[in-house]
Amino acid sequence: MLLKELIDRCGFRIITASNLNEEIKDGYIGDLLSDVMGNAPADSIWLTVQSHVNILAVASITGIKAILLCNGLSYEEETIEKAKENDITLLETEKSSFHASLALFEAGLR
């Protein structure tokens, strides 16, 4: 499913957008960076409550296409600027990680 379709269906806020036509094939929920690096599939959307700049390195290493910040949290300004420089899509939602993943499932992401 295309990233822009998931965003539209789930109502996530776009903070930075590199390529909304990316194919998202999977998702991963995690807040421990080493766990995400070891287990998150490429071409996925990552649901987290981490907002610092180190998440961008994790996304780049693993091939994650978008990071969704849950629980109504906001990204640090440094993270937003670095995401723009590195063409990584950042999204936000008021939903918890559980409810955001449920929304992704109902939108058709399997």
Could you explain the architecture of this structure?
The structure is a single chain. With 110 residues, this protein is α/β, with parallel strands linked by helices. It has one domain (3-107): HprK N-terminal domain-like (Udp-n-acetylmuramoylalanyl-d-glutamate--2,6- Diaminopimelate Ligase, Chain: A, domain 1), CATH 3.40.1390.20. Helices cover 40% and strands 19% of the residues. The protein contains five helices and five strands. The protein has helices at residues 3-10, 33-39, 54-62, 77-85, 97-107, and strands spanning 13-16, 26-29, 44-48, 66-69, 89-92. Strands 1-5-4-3-2 form a five-stranded mixed beta sheet. α1 (3-10) crosses α5 (97-107) and α2 (33-39) packs parallel to α3. The longest helix has 11 residues, at 97-107. The chain is globular. The termini are close together. The model has no long low-confidence stretch (mean pLDDT 96). This is Iron-sulfur binding hydrogenase. InterPro entries: Ser_kin/Pase_Hpr-like_N_sf (IPR028979).
- The succession of helices and strands, N to C, reads HEEHEHEHEH
Counted by DSSP, the helix tally is 5
Class per helix and strand makeup: alpha/beta
The averaged pLDDT comes out at 96
InterPro entries: Ser_kin/Pase_Hpr-like_N_sf (IPR028979)
Protein name: Iron-sulfur binding hydrogenase
What's the topology here?
Elements: H1 3-10, E1 13-16, E2 26-29, H2 33-39, E3 44-48, H3 54-62, E4 66-69, H4 77-85, E5 89-92, H5 97-107
Parallel strand pairs: 2-3, 3-4, 4-5
Antiparallel strand pairs: 1-5
Helix pairs in contact: 1-5, 2-3
